[in-house]
UniProtKB/TrEMBL annotation:
GO biological process: carbohydrate metabolic process
Native species: Abrus precatorius (Indian licorice)
Keyword Hydrolase: yes
Gene: LOC113852287
This protein's name: Chitinase 2-like
Lineage: Eukaryota, Viridiplantae, Streptophyta, Embryophyta, Tracheophyta
Family: Belongs to the glycosyl hydrolase 18 family.
Amino acid sequence: MSVEPAAFVQGEIFREYIGAKPSPKLRKFPVEIINPKISEFHFILAFATDDYDPTTGRGKGNFRPSWNVSDFSAVKIKEMKAQYRNVKVVISIGGRGTKYPFNPEDKLQWIHNAKKSLKEILEVDYKDDCGCVTKTVIDGVDINYEHIESDGFVECIGEIIEYLKRKGMMVSIAPSDSTDPANPVLTNYKNLYKDNKEHIDWVDYQFYDQTVSTTHAFVNLYRSLSDFFSVKKLLAGYSTDPEDAGKISQKVFFEGCEILLRSDSLPGIFVWDANDSKVLEEPYYVEIKAQQLLTKSED
């Protein structure tokens, strides 16, 4: 597959997952890491998790925020956006690990419940009283399942993506690769993207979920993925979670990003996650460094 013609992009977007972990705890958005020179800064609230049948372990499509809604409330989001005009806020559905798989009990019921529960999160938990068309302070929804245990992923998530786009939402997907043949997660995401590419705004690829030991390997992997997902949409992801340590180093990641930025081949970077970055020896170093690279600045 050939690269899109004239597919040159400028680094313009930075995304930060937040709220997914009870410890280290965050009680507010770390606004001090927002670089005003970045075109778009997205906080991604993770996760709105599915409701699973305790007997079968299969999902019902009833999504509920696992983050503390009072810590990251609609009022606080509106206040933050008023002060930082480049900020948007997204919610992520799914979850990391085998505890939160895509595994619907009944596909049609799952789709119905998912639409209903997401509407409640967007328009009740995060209602915007401004009278705007979207009725919510949330700007988009991220699809982030690491385990897919049944068929219907493309069908069910495709329906949800179309529903969200009709509501004016930005949509992103967060593919990863798996060495487990029973969990063909990347294949499922590729099929989802192929059928819905016009409705998917960003692709947050989890480079930290597989071993990438050299800068050359990272750049080659990114370019191979961008041939499929589009260099205009593919974001490079790095993790500060200790559980992901050792798969791709900061050195390899940043050197690779610099190479891609010099060739106008990287639209943005995302980091998993703010909770762990807060307690680094140099808090939020990765987030700050990534935005400096994207804006070609030292502040």
